[in-house]
Amino acid sequence: MAVDFRGHPMFPTSGFSAPTRFEADVYDCEVWGDIPSDIDGTFYRMQCDFVYRPPENEWPTGFNGDGHISQFRFRNGSVDYKGRFVQTDRLKAEKAARKRLFGVYRNRLTDDPSVAHLDHSAANTHMYWHHGKLMVLKEDSLPWTVDPHTMETEGVYDFNGQYTATSMSAHPKIDARTGELIAYGYQAKGDLSDDIAVYSFAPNGEKLWEAWIKSPYLGIIHDISITENYVIIPVISRTTSLERLRTGEPMWEWDASLPTMLGVFRRGGDGSDVRWFTGPARNTLHYLNAWEDGDIINMELPVGDSERSPQQIKRWVMNMGSRDDRFGEELINTSNSPLARMDDRYCGLPYRYGYVGNADPAFEWDEEKTGVPAGRATNCYVRFDIHSKETSTFNVGPVSGLQEVCFIPRNDAADEGDGYLFGVASNYEDMVSELVIADATRMEEGPIARVRLPFRLRGGTHGNWMPSSQMPFTS
User: Fold this and answer.
1) pTM for the model
2) Nearest 10 degrees: CA dihedral of 191, 193, 196, 197?
3) Mind listing the pLDDT tens digit for each residue in 406-458?
């Protein structure tokens, strides 16, 4: 059967949401502006693409698409681009059959029986560099590794047999002080299990410790946070059951009757000391940072009060010195993006700045040229001070929508906040994608450079920067 995406509710017949389905190399990309010479390294960015048409009732997030990595390699003011699909067992099987074989998101009961024995990872959410491995991550399965230079797929990775859980999430954390990787998996003994596994790996990939705990209910655990002494595991009010999967639906559904649960336990232990803090149902998936202030654990994140409400930056507060197992909540910033980033050198430590997208109606927007209603596109990046709550704003212009922001330190020794902001922009007027670069210390001045691709990329999930000091070029 020929490929035909027309009429699918997830995809318009044109626009940035439609599948792209191609790999590409662009040597010496077109650059509008000047790229500072101290930007020296590689920016990796992931998108969920679709090689074959998914079922009509697919989870509309698009998180069940095929993993496609963009590599932007910077040196001496020039940029080379490479885009590749992760050649998972899943993708290879579907290409051989020339049709979709895997069903809706995380529901194996909807898969074609011919792929029941295959690794089901789409390898489509995030990528991390640690102990010489570029790991491509999807929370329902083990990592895949990709050659960081050629982008050739290498295979499934279990830390040389040290990682025994069946899944590893796309949001591990790297302790900037020690280089320690805190990785975890949920439903860690198979689909619908209530097991959570947390692992620590040294910079050389050797396992330092692992902990196993039970989830209070079968909720989504998409991300975690760490502090100097603790791991925080939020369980969010999206749930599932075997009964739901038997109806043929994607795994998750919102349940406002379930509380938000924050599991806190000491790093280096077995998890038996886990303490669960409770709060009202909240809609969130991604967390900015957490840090300690005496007995107080503070955690900043984008969060919505309900399934449909806009997400804003809030702080959750846990008092380890109190017998009260409720967590507090306060507003930090009203920007309305579900994705926020920081200077990763301060992961788990006290810090000052966060960066988040925002759809700001105060800036000019051209509905005629973009075909996008005002207020629907993220047109700004906002830097907010988590203590004073002061902000600075970068505006991308009237015809582009921004994807996730990423902070790039000016160099390894730069102060917090001294660096650049990277983000892929969808230029709706020209129907091309641009990697926009702003100086984080003067972001109000707009882009200092735009790396123009001669095609569009779909909306991305996440990206990470690797300076050449940590990942040297091979040529």
Assistant:
1) 0.97
2) -70
3) 999 999 999 999 999 999 999 999 999 999 999 999 999 999 999 999 999 99
